[in-house]
Each structure stands twice: as structure tokens, then as C-alpha cells.
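--- STAGE predict ---
source: upstream dedup step, 1 unique chain passed
mode: sequence only
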Amino acid sequence: MSTLTYEIRPDGLVLHMDQGLLALTPYTAHTIRVRYTLRAEFNDQASLMVVAAPDQNTPFTVDETADSLLFSTAAVRIAIDKQTAAFTYYDGQGALLAREPAGGGKTLAPIDVLVSDFGASTVAEAGLSADGVRIEARNVHKRIDRQAYHTKLAFEWARGEALYGLGSHEEGMLNLRGQHQYLYQQNMKAVVPVLVSTRGYGILLDSYALMTFHDDAFGSYLWSDVDDEMDYYFVHGPEFDQIVHELRSLTGKAPMLPKWAFGYIQSKERYKTQAELIEIVQEYRRRGLPLDCIVLDWMSWTGDLWGEKRSTRHASPIRNR
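--- STAGE serialize ---
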């Protein structure tokens, strides 16, 4: 990234580099969208995650020195090294928030995206697992659908900085510093591609791919398996509530859960019979203990119909009395 030119557009800053394009778009004074591609133009597909549009009335400035560009709103300043395009993030008063490695923090590695064609010779074999019926296919023809990228967004986090987020992974981690985490949806794993830092900022990755988080001897970065470009949002609070407010503005308001969902939910691996389940509910009632929901799990499924909810073996609904 030795040669860098730029243009200031009404919606932000675009950098033209030896390797691709970088764009910074202020959505608010506190939220900056960053995109990076090796192509001649950015992807125009609508996000599956972000519903907000940038506020065209958000003022920003671009200042140039011999070594860097400084992109600023009232709440965030981003210094961009002209030689490496490495970002250093500051708050509106110039206090350091985060920085990328001096050599640059954004990497795109081109890959071929393969899709499966199932033909007459394809053989499917079904089997049971702890997650239900799994079907494996053999004799599947693979073809190239398009070219995309592995993406890597690297940081040099501060000593004593704590990072939280990335979803629910049932592994006892709270502070993610010094950890390595695989981010994919599976049974008790629930991925939320958001990091928040005790230094008063958050990062939202607009990605739907397998991702990994690293903060170890091999580096500190977020990596994604298949993306058409790098696309993320840097959010400054500094309070966590302010960061969450900005994130909710990006992704839309979630509907409130029904009132009973905020009460006690009783669950275990499974209840073997309807009689056992009803007996448990009656014992809660006898002791005067609150019970708003009881989970009927996999013993309600008939034979091989894993997950089938038209089974005649459903227990009667439990009603609060």
C-alpha cells in the first residue's frame, strides 16, 4: 500500500491504493463504517444485518499531513498512515482508543467460493446424532461460483484493556483477551459479531461467515472465512450503553419478549414422559414456587422424526394457575 490517493465525497472518504479501495462513511458522529476491497468498486448488495442508512447531515473533516490523513467527526478521529493505510482510532478529544499494527491491519486473501452440484450419482446417507438427523452426501460435484476473500482485521490492544462480546459460547470466557474463539452457529453456540472494549469503543463486523477471534502469540485479530469485501463499523461510546444505542440504531430495534419469558424457565436434558413433566409442574405449584415456562425436549419426538412437531406425543400445554 505504498501509493495512496483520496477523494472526499458527500458521504465520506474514499482511498485509492495500490491494492484496492478503502472507504470511511460516517453513519453518526459516533459510528464510522469502514469497507475494504481489492476490486475496482465496492459491493452494492444490501446488508442482511444493518438496516440504518448514513446520516447525510453528519459533519466530517479530512486533514492531511506529510505522513497521514486524519478523518474526523465530533466524536471519532481516525489517523490513516499514507504508506501502510494502518488506522489509529482516537476519541473527539484526541485520546487513543485503538490502533492497528504499524504495517497495516486489514488483509484480504482471494479465494474461490465452491458450490455443490447434486447429480444422479450423488448418494445421500442419513444418520442420527445428538443434534438430530444428519444427512451426508457422496459423489458431489464442486464448481467455482465466484471469487471472495478471507478477511483479517488486526489490532494492537492496550495493556489492561478488556474485550467482551461475540455471542454466547458456553466456555466460561468473559474477558476475551488472551483467548481464541471459533465463531459459528452450533447447538449451544450463538454468534454475535460484536466486540466492546473497556476503552469505550465497539466493533461490529457485517459478516455471515465462519469467523475466528485471536488474541494470542500468533496475533490479535478477527478473521472471516468467506466475504465479498471487508465491512465493519467502529463505534465510540464511551459508555457501554451509548455503544449499544449506536449498535441498535444500526441493526434495528429488537421486539420485546413476552412477559413470561422474563420469568423462571425450567429445563433439563429431557423429560421422558408427559406424566413426569406434569408432575414436575405440579410440585412447583405445591411449593408455591414461580414457574413461567417448562421445556419439553427431544423425548417428544416420535421414532426417527427428530424435530418433528406434529407428533401426537406432545404433552398438554402448561398454564399458569
